[in-house]
Write a structure and sequence with these properties.
5 strands, about 30% strand, 2 helices, alpha+beta, single chain, globular
């Protein structure tokens, strides 16, 4: 198991509800929760409680400036 995956699992074990892995080189983001894993295909990272939305496209575009 990779070091990153072990760290993700540790955060989830400590009851961290969302773990976001953002890769600026590929401009992708993965979301890990205790229930599932998925790619943030719309490039918006979200949480439910509290309700937060982080638009990654704006950040990725800033890398080009």
């Amino acid at each position: 198991m990779s070091r990153m995956r072990r760290k993700i699992d540790q955060y989830l074990e400590f009851a961290i509800p969302y773990v976001w892995i953002i890769d600026p080189s590929t401009r992708k983001a993965d979301v890990y929760t205790p229930q599932k894993f998925f790619e943030a295909k719309d490039l918006i990272l979200r949480t439910d409680n509290p309700q937060i939305e982080v638009p990654l496209l704006e950040m990725f575009n800033a890398l080009d400036e």
